[in-house]
Amino acid sequence: MSNHPLKTASLGIQHVLAMYAGAVIVPLIVGGALGLSVEQLTYLVSIDIFMCGIATILQVWTNRFFGIGLPVVLGCTFTAVGPMIEIGGKYGITSIYGSILVSGLVVMLIGKSFGKLARFFPPIVTGSVVLIIGITLIPVAMNNLGGGQGAKDFGSIENVVLGFGTLLLIIIMYKFFTGFIRSISILIGLLVGTVAASFFGKVDFSPVIDASIFHMPHLFYFGMPTFNISAILTMVLVAIVSLVESTGVYYALGDITNRKISQADLTKGYRAEGLAIVLGGLFNAFPYTAFSQNVGLVQLSGVKSKNVIYTVGAMLVVIGLVPKIGALTTVIPSSVLGGAMIAMFGMVIAAGIKMLSQVDFARQENLLVIACSVGMGLGVTVVPDVFLKLPESLQILTSNGIVAGSISAIFLNILFNMIPSKRRINHSVILEKKVS
Fold first, then answer.
1. pTM for the whole thing?
2. Going along 316-373, which residue ranges are E strands?
């Protein structure tokens, strides 16, 4: 039934719509934060959608070296938004792409052994990292909701009404709808918000008129990549967290499609993801990860055919080659984007909390790991100058809240949960005696 071309196409469009808002919002936020021109922003959105299609096809098409062969859709990882804005602001946009390229190569190299490394990233570490990233993104959302940092009408009644109106609409749709409508609620919120903003004279369609109908992807569009150790460390950490998230998606899809996921499958999945990240770096797009919203759609529609996902990949490639479609997204006013961002970045925080829900909170040590790592991550983000007097080599680890928080979480988890302590040994001896 799902092989019928019309049905395959309609299911493909559904998948594209479900991931579209999540995919385009990343270049819009990063490009907006780095002050890119409308033309550069249009390229960024178009190449991003194009590369989402390529990355998806690489993952679905399974061969000896890469591709997990599950009905998985790849999109930009939200985990990378905060770090990319920070890297771009500090070292320039070319440094973002240098760090993306290296992180992709690292993912391809560690693909086979990631199972062994994964023990250093249990839920207490990944949950803390995702929570830190979500929290550090909220100021970006609030600045946009006010109309964008430095805007003449920042915080105006119109901006606040549009921002919160968009957020309210998304909440209402979540409350009263289920299934597909719910899965595209953010996209509908952005559309309705933009229409409402046009009545306030806040929508300028000239970028769409000026954009070309067709373009080819450019190698190193923003210039030759530059390499900075701190930026590379940050993106490698982001890539590892994404791998942990993707692993969850692979197992969930394996469950839905009644397929047992082997270690070899995971390795090929990681390699495809690494390859997608490298290609993203070459053409100045973004790091990619398996999109969980599309897993929900596979579950809802009950259609598990890889043909549908190939169709999605092809649709994304075609959309990405037409800058006029990319330019359409750049007309969304900052305040409307900000309203949607609160929901989306809030969901990043919620995802972090969900990961942490697997942690044993009865153990005081676990509470301390979370407390110190989140505190460290947030502290460095809010007061970045606190470590300015340290040597350059140490500032690599302390200049970025996400790196500082992540390293704290990894170190404290090893200290409390991996190195056997006297108290835990005594506790297990008492338990053994009780059992015997």
1. 0.81
2. none
Contacts of 262 (CB under 8 A, 6+ apart): none
CA distance 17 to 111: 30
Helix H, strand E, coil C: the string for 341-354 is HHHHHHHHHHHHHH
CB-CB contact of 6 with 62 (8 Å): no
State which H helix or E strand residue 3 sits in. none
- Residue 63, SS3? coil
Q: How far apart are CA 5 and CA 381, in angstroms?
A: 50
Quickly tell me which residue has 């973004």 as its tokens: 286
Measured CA distances, 197 to 6, 24, 159, 202, 414 (Å):
35, 19, 9, 5, 51
For 303-326, how does the pLDDT look when each residue is reduced to its tens digit (9 = 90+)?
Answer: 788 899 999 999 999 999 999 988
H/E stretch holding 162 reads: helix 157-176
Cα(141)–Cα(365) distance, integer angstroms: 33
Q: Which residue has the higher pLDDT, 428 or 349?
A: 349
- Helix, strand or coil, per DSSP, at residue 436: coil
* Cα–Cα distance list, 170 to 163, 177, 200, 287 (Å): 11, 10, 21, 27
CB 243 within 8 A of CB 270: yes
> How many helices (DSSP H) and strands (DSSP E) are in the chain?
20, 2
CA-based nearest residue to 279, from 216, 326, 218, 215 = 218
For range 425-431, the mean pLDDT: 59
Give CA–CA dist 78/124, Å, rounded: 19
Query: Smallest Cα–Cα separation from 234: which of 89, 433, 24?
Result: 89
pLDDT level of residue 6 (50, 70, 90 thresholds): confident
Does residue 2 surpass a pLDDT of 60? Answer: no
pLDDT score for 84: 93
Name 288's bridge partners. 76
